Amino acid sequence: MRRSLWVGGFFMLIMAILPARLPGESDPVQKYRSILWDHLTALCDLGPRYPGSEGHAKTRAYIRNVAERYADSWKEQAFVARVGYAEELPLYNYELTFKGTGDKPPILLGAHYDTRPFADEESNSQKEARPIVGANDGGSGTAVLLAMAQYFHENPPERTVQLVFFDGEDWGRKGSDEYFLGSSYYAEQLKKEDKSTWPARVLVVDMVAQKNLKIFKEQYSFRSSPSFIEFVFDTAKELGVDQFVPMLRYSVRDDHLPFIYMKIPSVLLIDFDYPHWHTLEDTLDKCSADSMLAVFRVVLETVRRV
């Protein structure tokens, strides 16, 4: 009996000190590398996806199809934005909910799915009026959320997760306030709800597919919630994801701002050192599945730990 107890104890000790995954053992997250890339490729194949375009309508159908297949519940939030040079602009947000197995308050993971209706960072004035494909800017964050829908369907989270696809982030012209239309509307509707239903955290993903990805700490995120952004970057460090650089860099106005104004801890993950931003060169060949997978890993682990 003593020998059996000793052997059993020794076995438990060995199991405790062994790594969770042995060298060469399959990585359950690795399969999402191809899933991420397939989503991004499919989105780019739809062409420019600005509000009112054929590509936009097809993207909405694509998101709805994923929602129907994987989400516990989902809703379309249709609204009309009043903008200076287009009287009424129909827009659509999508919220996919994955119910948590525990009782923690929800976390919102967001990305904008629309693309820029004009290439106003082009040096050639003849190209400025043309819409962009937005592989990285608009495509990458959307692809990450679409892949997460499948992941959370297959691996129910402890904390309820809301995947929110924002519309109209990239509509406005330089110098205007006509950006973040979808997230601003979503936040305004959220204000009408009881605070107990608000997400405890917001994590926005944008422009995360470029090759040689480097994500620095964004300034608005750091000022609004230093503890949350440190948590995200500490998670990346523990995972060995070196695409996350624990230094402050840009202040970027994006879909996290409406939630920061509501005092909800909100972080933006973005690589703003992207030479093809708002140009016709923001195409699939500038992107990397490995970059998206790195962000995918960090976000999943953040959701699990936070």
From TrEMBL:
Positions of the Peptidase M28 domain: 97-302
InterPro entries: Peptidase_M28 (IPR007484), QC/QCL (IPR040234)
SUPFAM superfamilies per the UniProt record, alphabetical: Zn-dependent exopeptidases
Record bears the keyword Endoplasmic reticulum: no
GO molecular function terms listed in the Swiss-Prot or TrEMBL record: glutaminyl-peptide cyclotransferase activity; zinc ion binding
Membrane spanning residue stretches: none
Pfam families: Peptidase_M28
Name this protein carries in UniProt: Peptidase M28 domain-containing protein
Species per Swiss-Prot/TrEMBL record: Nitrospina gracilis (strain 3/211)
